[in-house]
């Protein structure tokens, strides 16, 4: 459950705002609003349709992946200034992970389709967004791989040197 209210994004430097110029941030402001989640709230589930994404302002969100026959595995926890959700940028626009608020969370919520439209109209914004989301994506996938190996690989299954 989220509560939303109109507002303007803060200009505090974080990973998101450092990736974009002031003009690009202003452009994104037009399709964002505040959204808050209580601890334990699901932001989205793996396999669901992507219509928005978030930048955390305060609190923490756990990213998880379903594992057949087991409880979902937390692969990473993200905090202030970090992106929650990258699947909105890739067809077929379905979540590859799930996300849950670990603590009360304040976010900036973005309309994914509107951001994609802004990116189509502004190649410089598109390039900046692709680079930023690409860096997040690589980090998330490496974190997921390491976490899943930690949780489920047999002991001694690593490579021998």
UniProtKB/TrEMBL annotation:
Residues 16-85 form the Cyclic nucleotide-binding domain. One of its GO terms (cellular component) is cytosol. One of its GO terms (molecular function) is DNA-binding transcription factor activity. Pfam families: cNMP_binding. Transmembrane segments: none annotated. This is Cyclic nucleotide-binding domain-containing protein. The lineage of its organism: Bacteria, Bacillati, Actinomycetota, Actinomycetes, Kitasatosporales.
């Amino acid at each position: 459950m989220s509560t939303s209210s109109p507002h303007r994004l803060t200009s505090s430097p974080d990973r998101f705002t450092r990736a974009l110029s002031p003009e690009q941030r202003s452009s994104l402001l037009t399709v964002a609003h505040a959204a808050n989640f209580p601890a334990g709230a699901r932001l989205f589930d793996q396999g669901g349709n992507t219509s928005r994404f978030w930048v955390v302002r305060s609190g923490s969100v756990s990213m998880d992946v379903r594992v057949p026959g087991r409880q979902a595995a937390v692969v990473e926890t993200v905090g202030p200034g970090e992106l929650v959700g990258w699947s909105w940028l890739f067809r077929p626009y379905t979540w590859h992970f799930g996300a849950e608020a670990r603590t009360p969370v304040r976010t900036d919520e973005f309309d994914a389709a509107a951001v994609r439209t802004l990116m189509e109209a502004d190649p410089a914004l598109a390039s900046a967004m692709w680079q930023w989301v690409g860096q997040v994506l690589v980090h998330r996938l490496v974190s997921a791989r390491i976490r899943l190996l930690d949780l489920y690989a047999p002991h001694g299954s690593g490579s021998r040197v």
